[in-house]
């Protein structure tokens, strides 16, 4: 072999020898974030593994995170296969998350404005009112409140009221059951298909469709009377259907219109629940947050301009929680073609986990990575600004379209929670238990006590 062919020859890729058939399932179930970090430390940036008989390649580290946004990454990685099951289950032809290339761009263009921060411009005080209403309803003084569930109701109330004018609270449980089954069985494939035959799932799915049909009827009625500049996400999706049905056929309306609930429910609920824990767990942080939010709301209503800059401690706590408790531990993709990554051969059609959260836990980028340190993000430290180290909202063409909206939603919700309520953990030594499916986050039995009202 010549020197040239030697350097070009792909490196040998390690394979994790797990248990027969189940493979690495237990590592994943125990905690995918830690499992991927351990894999990276032991095997390097590329390793093959199997889960329930299905083979995957894990690519991880800053190299993998930055690769997703490169031209080569866009050409080599595709989302379609992972979402096919969901698309089929809705009787749709496609969904934003499962498209690639030009058709993905078309759908993102339809939904960009509706999912943006601008969509709630002028409505921050309304968002605060909705949030307060949720606390009055679900977080009663003297009670132990199940935090994730409380946040789920809050998210549906906020998104529903802002997007459609009414919150479909009676559908929260159905949306959750449907997402749980579809994500677990068809997208992340951590559970067997037989679960989709359960009556509880079938009933919940029928109810989500019922909600979808209502949304279609209302959006159709609004189309004739809403000026293009006044349209919200739901109106934009309906306008795309009426004006360019090849981009948004009737079959794709339900999955697209109920999309914000699927995209926002578990993500924001799990994240806000985790922030509730991290802040209460660190009294010094809680004190700083209290001072900040008391000043923020001192005048009654709030100014929207530069909101996040005016609450640096809370924003630091949010970012630090999203580093340590990422809801998107890895992004799932398929190899569009044969390619080399870090010298390893990846084959067309292979299923890939891109472990974008692995660098979140690496001391090379974050001094004392295990420490909850809310000041990492302020200049001059700005540790998150190093390339590829911080990806709570994903990377590449599918980077969270609701990111800027979610940032405001999370900041306002948490600011209001700590402003209004005097909270404590169940016990001072309480240590958070987490769940992994379908979205990693605090366990459903995580509760906090409402000691009283602060305002
Ligand atoms: C804690 C809050 C959130 C986090 C951490 C988060 C994270 C993510 C991640 C990692 C992705 C990329 C998935 C992939 O590449 O396969 C994504 C996609 C997406 N997110 Fe979020 N998200 C959050 C909240 C929201 C909210 C509130 C909305 C809107 C209501 C939203 C809308 C979307 C949409 C529409 C996509 C699909 C983008 C595409 O495929 O092009 N997200 N999100």
TrEMBL record:
Pfam families according to UniProt: p450
Q: Which UniProt keywords apply?
A: Heme, Iron, Metal-binding, Monooxygenase, Oxidoreductase
Where heme binds, per the record, is at 400
Give the signal peptide range: none
Enumerate the GO terms in the molecular function aspect: heme binding; iron ion binding; monooxygenase activity; oxidoreductase activity, acting on paired donors, with incorporation or reduction of molecular oxygen
Q: Does the keyword Iron apply?
A: yes
Q: Set out the biological process GO terms recorded for this chain's protein.
A: sterol metabolic process
Q: Which cofactor does it need?
A: heme
Record has Transmembrane as a keyword:
no
Q: Which CDD domains match?
A: cytochrome_P450 (cd00302)
Q: Which family does it belong to?
A: Belongs to the cytochrome P450 family.
The identity of this protein, by name, is Cytochrome P450
Species in which this protein is naturally found:
Solimonas terrae
